[in-house]
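Catalogue entry: protein

Sequence with per-residue tokens
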Amino acid sequence: MLLVYQCPNCQKAYDKQRSLYVHQLYYCNRESKFSCPNSGCSYRSNLKSNLKRHMLLQHGMTQEQISALTDSMTYGYKKW
């Protein structure tokens, strides 16, 4: 696999321009926006979907419990 798209900030390389775009938008030099609401858990993520997956797999929560805890969480900017 040829990695032709490189991030100018951290030098990570990707084979698709879209992957670089997502990296720059959500990950590179970004503080994690979402933290696990379970007490004693230090998990943090830049993506709400990753937090939901964590809660399901690591804490055994149901989709209803996860939705109740995460529906009010926002990204901090307006969605288009």
User: Anything to note?
Assistant: Residues 34-70 form one domain. Residues 7 and 13 are 6 Å apart (CA to CA). The chain has a mean pLDDT of 90.
